[in-house]
Design a protein that fits this description.
There is one protein chain. Strand 5 and strand 6 form a beta hairpin. The chain has one helix and eight strands; from the N terminus they run E-E-E-E-H-E-E-E-E. The longest helix is centred in the middle third of the chain and has 12 residues. It is mainly beta. It has one domain. The protein has a six-stranded antiparallel sheet with strand order 4-3-5-6-7-8, covered by helices on one side. Strands 1-2 form a two-stranded parallel ribbon.
């Protein structure tokens, strides 16, 4: 399904690190997803190249410290490849599209995984940490209820 949610989006790079909040510093509104720079790729959730490293930014939702950075961790090439491999295994389907689903509590917690590549710009993936667990690359949203990497 298309990721066309209106609202501000994060633009991250591994070198730039994790922003201190998952809210837009200009508007104060929570980010609704990520955006990725060209070149684009089609037919897959991630580029076909293997990542050389990465970064995971974890953010609180409405609880504890609302929308603040909870933790950040660097991924070496092996861990980044494992994360990307797990994400590539998630089918590009929409289980929620038929209108019959039930999601647990969603407090707005999110994780953003950023992959670094040698021959293209970094790619960020927005991962809903609870509720209806989905992943988005800024263009498409996929259902990943029980298959998200940790």
């Amino acid at each position: 399904m298309a990721d066309d949610a209106p609202g501000p989006r994060m633009s991250l790079t591994v070198a730039g690190g994790c922003p201190s909040s998952s809210k837009d510093p200009v508007t104060g509104d929570p980010f609704v997803g990520v955006t990725n720079p060209p070149p684009t790729w089609s037919g897959t959730f991630l580029p076909p190249q293997d990542p050389t490293g990465g970064l995971i930014c974890r953010y609180y939702g409405l609880n504890d410290q609302p929308f603040q950075l909870k933790s950040q961790s660097m991924l070496d090439a092996t861990d980044a490849l494992a994360q990307a491999g797990a994400m590539r295994q998630v089918p590009l389907t929409c289980a929620f599209c038929d209108g019959t689903y039930s999601c647990p509590m969603d407090d707005g917690s999110i994780d953003v995984v950023v992959f670094n590549y040698t021959d293209r710009p970094d790619v960020a993936v927005w991962v809903k940490a609870n509720g209806c667990r989905t992943m988005s690359n800024g263009s498409i949203i996929i259902d990943a209820v029980d298959t998200l990497p940790t």
